[in-house]
Give the backbone structure.
Amino acid sequence: MSWRIGVDSGGTFCDICLYNTETKQFGIWKVSSTPDDPSRGIAGGVTEGLGTVSASAGDVRFLGHGTTVGTNALIQHRGVPTGMITTDGFRDLLEIGRQKRPSLYDTQADKPETLVARHLRFEVPERVRHDGTVETALDEESVRAAARALKDAGVQAVAIGFLYSFVRPGHEQRALEIVQEEFPEAFTSISSAVAPEFREYERFSTTVVNAYLGPVMETYITRLARRLMDLGLGVAPRITQSNGGVISFDLARALPVRTVLSGPSTGVVAAQEIGRMIGIPNLITFDMGGTSTDVALLKDGACRMTGEAMVHGYPIKAPMLDIHTVGAGGGSLAYRDNGGLLKVGPQSCGAFPGPVCYDKGNDIPSTTDANVVLHILNPEFLLGGRMPIRHDKAYAQISRLAGELDMDVMATAQGIISVVTANMARAVRVISVQRGHDLRDYALMALGGAGPLHAVRLALELDMKRVVIPLTPGVMCALGLLLTDLRADFSTTQIMMADEGNVDRVQAIHDELAARAQGWFTEENVAPENCGQRFTVDMRYVGQNYELPVMLCAPEGRITAQTVTDMIAEFMEAHRTQYGFASESDPIQFVTFRVEATGRVEKAEFISHPDEGPDPSSARTGAREVWFPETGGFVECPIYDRAHLRSGNRIPGPAIIEQMDATTVILPGMEAHVEPYLNIIIDTGIG
């Protein structure tokens, strides 16, 4: 037997998705995360998951892994002491930034903590001009002295960022050699390797984040690799990047900054494939876990890629899916604020101690506790019976909160749901309405363990007509790892006019990027027939400060005058679409050249099932009293087992659909049906 495994390690649960390449059989498993050592929970989850399908580690042919280790270390400022060596005069750039407040109208908002203390930032004489000429040679003794000082200061990582190193990286490369001679035990990053693009603040910030997270990820990856080896895994595991593709553990060690959005990215990949399969290409993905909610917009079946993003206050230049995160999850804590109002999140109870109903020591109610009190979640157990639930303790703590708010207990529980729904709705509007998208043209796809619980209420809040609940919503990020390819991105900034006179320069850049991609294919042992390259160029009008990506199509690798003409036309069309106009006369520039290298791998396949009629009664397991604000109290609500629903079944609301990894709510007045691939489509009743 041959198995492929996807593992997504979150802040609360570790999700396992298994796929048999011979029988097309899927298996899923879910265990609690182990925040003290995430690799322990992953190894245990893989072992248990393989046991459920009667397989062993020796049967595994692929293991892909998404992680929040880097993200959590950045959010909680648990990276390592880091030093920086930079061009003379640029010591304070990390603090000066773009001279913008974090929030334009909030005078109380604090800037994020600078990851390198000022006394650990060293300047050295060197200067490269914008055209690559050397104005001041590198003072090697200054670099050597800085390395020794950083070693004496006890730092564990060093970031090296020089001005215009993306044009001429020689000074940074020599500085790296010197630091490795003087301080070999330090994790060292240079900006020309991490983010070889212009805009020095963002480039330096990305390099610092990479260095800051480097030893953390190194420790984690080493532990995980050892545990997987001890299980008997015979293949090299892979790790997810923020762009949705996977890379080797070795590359992740060198470039941990590219894994900052590792966790949620493959959920979007899975959503893209399912949306294409069921004929709903326009989607808003809503991935609600225990700690946070991630949302993304898919237009025409594709999620927008971005080359730069602000991640928890730090600008990062790295290819990533355009995902927006908000601190709202099943573990988000509910409390009365200083003004006497109900607030939910962003603080979370995490995996340990978890919600009050987990009975592990927490006494502050969470979103999960509210769902238990309302009986939307099973008030006796979760995870298919493996996790007992203390309804009495959840009720007692929400009752205490209700007393503080002078509210009814059930109204307080529903109030928690309403507040967290409003928080998530704001996140969705950021990536949709604020960018000119009409939400009525999109369906909401619910991912994560808590997504299906809240999806229909969120859809009502946003006036969305349809909700899609995938077959395995609680492990979609793990499933996405079985649907994605190997991927690496390479880029270089070379600012020049977009005209026929630069055809030879564009050809040389294209060839250099293609060679870098080919080198990566060789390192990853990707067969020639599975290699793919996609070239783009960021373009702008002269004087603009923002660029738009344009495809660079070069048949047989040749750049011609017609290639440039076509790119100019495509840029103007993209500009017209984005901004509503395009100038026919203003000069245009090429700015940053990129190649997306893809190594295609075998993927999981979905099976279509014949229609078995609308009657879902064979899946009904019973009923329980559930409190709905629409009915003003408890009503008897039928309970269905997701595993026994069949294609064509129709389920009127109110109803609850339970499965091991998630619980789906259908409100009164709504109706759901099961489509041929066994995804549930809910009609919210909005015209």
In short: The chain has five domains: 75-217, 262-326+436-480, 332-419, 486-599, 617-683. Residues 494 and 603 are 37 Å apart (CA to CA). The domain at 486-599 is CATH 3.30.1490 (Dna Ligase; domain 1).
